[in-house]
Amino acid sequence: MAGLYHDGNRRLQDRYDTRRLADRIEERLRRETFTEEDRAFIESRDMFFLATADEQGMPQCSYKGGEPGFVRIVGDGTLAFPSYDGNGTYLSLGNVLANPQVGILFIDFQSPKRLRVNGVASWDEADPLLGEFPEAQLIVRVQATDILPNCSRYVHRMDLVERSRFVPRADVPTPIPGWKRQEWSHDVLPEGDPARDAGLP
């Protein structure tokens, strides 16, 4: 593995006398393969945050939600998740085409607990996992370069009120979001979008 820290990290570590601590964290906690504890944690999550950047380094951060188990560990250092219908801008996945380096943050707001996964992403419209996720457009796979537990002391404790009814589920019709029925968007929806046939309210 390449070193975790660059000059900017080191300058701040030296300024605040945390270099020794940072080195110990890298030595003891950083890894490239998932443990069974990592697998259980990740596969129990129903959401995560995905950070990407374009070829100039301009960032995007997006929320990804699904049913528990929608992120899967598919290899010692590889995870996979489905990409569902969004707003059609493809800001995150477009960035992956330009710059495959991604960062993922998993959080359990009830325990609390969090885990970072940095890696190299790719996606495939014909991935063999595609059929296991209703309405998924493609599958994203991330080969981990850094798996790193995070201190959870600043994670606020929160309880789930309700999972989104828009997450695709087998044998359950997915509702049409209201914004797709508005005049500003309805005439530019992609071919095959169920909202085109539904018409305006």
Give a structural overview.
It is a single chain. The protein has a domain at 32-150: Electron Transport, Fmn-binding Protein, Chain A (Pnp Oxidase, Chain A, Roll), CATH 2.30.110. Helices cover 22% and strands 28% of the residues. The protein is built from six helices and seven strands. It has helices at residues 7-15, 19-29, 36-43, 91-98, 183-186, 194-198; strands at residues 47-53, 59-65, 72-75, 78-83, 101-108, 113-124, 138-150.
Task: Spell out the blueprint of helices and strands.
Layout: H1 7-15, H2 19-29, H3 36-43, E1 47-53, E2 59-65, E3 72-75, E4 78-83, H4 91-98, E5 101-108, E6 113-124, E7 138-150, H5 183-186, H6 194-198
Antiparallel strand pairs: 1-2, 1-5, 3-4, 4-7, 5-6, 6-7
